[in-house]
């Protein structure tokens, strides 16, 4: 599904006057599969597996504030805690009581904050199952690319504004697998959604989650260690940011979580690079979790 069709078939809800984009099929009951995207992309990352998932589940995907087709206010405080607040508001607005989660990249950190809030009895819904894709769960195992390092530096506000289209696309392509590179049209879609609503000007604010992962490591890693929900980790091993080295660290930190699927040669976006493979592993996991 192309980016334009994805946008047209979505909807918006207001969070403190900010329009937040989301997409869903017809929700039956109060239980959903929630798809969480990462930086610097959008819910459209899941479009290759959307139809197959929507044929089996009530599915909700949304663009975090500052991302995709959602509002990108200049003066918003783009913390992980505020992103989780937006997500909570959406779920409660849809009157959802149970969620199953498939998360990627920064979406993994949002998920960890939800797990921490669940422990604190701060959610009006339950988290039933959790499936992670590539994403830096531990700051010590995160290997940001050069563009991310520049964005989080004191000069990040300039880099976000001045980064060329070709440099953006080269940096994004660099974290895909060698043999699973995005097409020119797909890279153009990634760029379009990044630039939508003048997204360049806030890119340096969005990436502050990298610092938060260090500050709140104990909170989020603790929630992961204590997680009791059925769990699977699907990881593209060739990802230079959070590939095989992250799996190695994961096994050290959370040794009791052993349901890990490693995909050799696949990069940072497994659901985009090998959608059928990820879909099969996810459906297998979900079937085992019932």
pLDDT < 50 stretches:
none
CATH superfamily: Alpha/Beta hydrolase fold, catalytic domain
Helicity range of the residues? 40-55%
Q: Structural class, please?
A: alpha/beta
* CATH topology term: Rossmann fold
What Rg is obtained from the alpha carbons, in whole angstroms?
A: 17 Å
Number of strands: 8
Number of domains: 1
Outline, from the CA principal axes? globular
Query: What distance lies between the first and last C-alpha atoms, to the nearest angstrom?
Result: 30 Å
- Percent strand: 15-25%
By CATH, the architecture is named 3-Layer(aba) Sandwich
Which strand order spans the largest sheet, edge to edge or round the barrel? 1-2-4-3-5-6-7-8
How would you spell out the order of helices and strands?
A: HEEEHEHEHEHHHHHHHEHEHH
Mean pLDDT: 94
What's the CATH class label?
Answer: Alpha Beta
């Amino acid at each position: 599904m192309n980016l334009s069709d994805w946008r047209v078939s979505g909807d918006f809800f207001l969070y403190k006057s900010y329009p937040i984009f989301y997409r869903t099929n017809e929700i039956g009951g109060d239980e959903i599969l929630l798809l969480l995207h990462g930086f610097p992309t959008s819910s459209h990352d899941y479009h290759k597996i959307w139809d197959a998932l929507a044929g089996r589940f009530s599915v909700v995907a949304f663009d975090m504030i500052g991302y995709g087709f959602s509002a990108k206010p200049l003066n918003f405080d783009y913390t992980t805690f505020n992103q989780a607040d937006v997500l909570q508001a959406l779920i409660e607005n849809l009157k959802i009581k149970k969620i199953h989660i498939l998360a990627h990249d920064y979406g993994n950190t949002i998920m960890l904050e939800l797990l921490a809030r669940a422990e604190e009895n701060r959610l009006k819904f339950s988290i039933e199952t959790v499936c992670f894709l590539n994403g830096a769960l531990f700051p010590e195992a995160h290997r940001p690319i050069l563009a991310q390092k520049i964005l989080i530096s004191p000069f990040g506000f300039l880099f976000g504004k001045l980064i060329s289209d070709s440099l953006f696309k080269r940096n994004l392509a660099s974290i895909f697998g060698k043999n699973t590179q995005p097409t020119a049209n797909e890279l153009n879609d990634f760029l379009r959604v990044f630039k939508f609503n003048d997204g360049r000007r806030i890119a340096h604010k969005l990436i502050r989650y990298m610092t938060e992962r260090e500050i709140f490591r104990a909170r989020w890693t603790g929630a992961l260690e204590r997680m009791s929900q059925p769990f699977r980790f699907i990881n593209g091993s060739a990802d230079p940011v959070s590939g095989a080295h992250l799996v190695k660290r994961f096994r050290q930190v959370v040794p009791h979580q052993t349901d890990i699927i490693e995909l050799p040669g696949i990069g940072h976006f497994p659901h985009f690079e090998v959608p059928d493979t990820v879909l099969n592993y996810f459906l297998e996991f979900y079937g085992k979790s019932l």
